[in-house]
Please model this.
Amino acid sequence: MFGGDILFTQRFLKSLGFYTGILDGLFGPLTDKANVLFENKYDEIADKMGRFDKRSETIIATLHPKSQELAREFLKKIQNSGILGTVVIKLISGTRNYAEQAALFAQGRTTSGKIVTNAGPGESNHNFGIAWDVGLFKGTDFLEDSPLYAKVGQEGKKISSLAWGGDFQSFVDRPHFQVKNSLTLKQIRAKFEKGESYLS
Ligand SMILES: [Zn+2]
Model:
């Protein structure tokens, strides 16, 4: 779970009320139990709202439950809108632990590839289970750059609790969606690291 990062897992599951132990980064029965409760919640939401393709499901399974519901509402809305024609939408990125965020931040800076984020560890909504990125596919081809991303953005943000990365001022990120929150990212991070609720 979460790249095998136990402390990250405990923080996340404690903020959801599923983990009741201390934040010690050690795997034990309470962490195990919390994981089961989290997986049960995923099943409950999926049963209620419907399931999607395997890749999207793998991503949804990493999200905050509130975010899981929104992701399912979002996918259903995009699919039913008819804007994609024969193109298929999938969720391709969800929750990242801090180490995974650090590796992504390094890309295009100290490692190869192009810069894909300005957010370091603990600075992205992806680190708290409240953001996802979509990918568009034609058959097996991944469409990296398509005007359809803008259409998906316009359609997706009709869901009032979602913000679209295409509207970001600093770093336009068209595949990105996140859950709106009255807290700042700094406040969310502080609560997350203490295992406190940061999203109702
Ligand atoms: Zn993103």
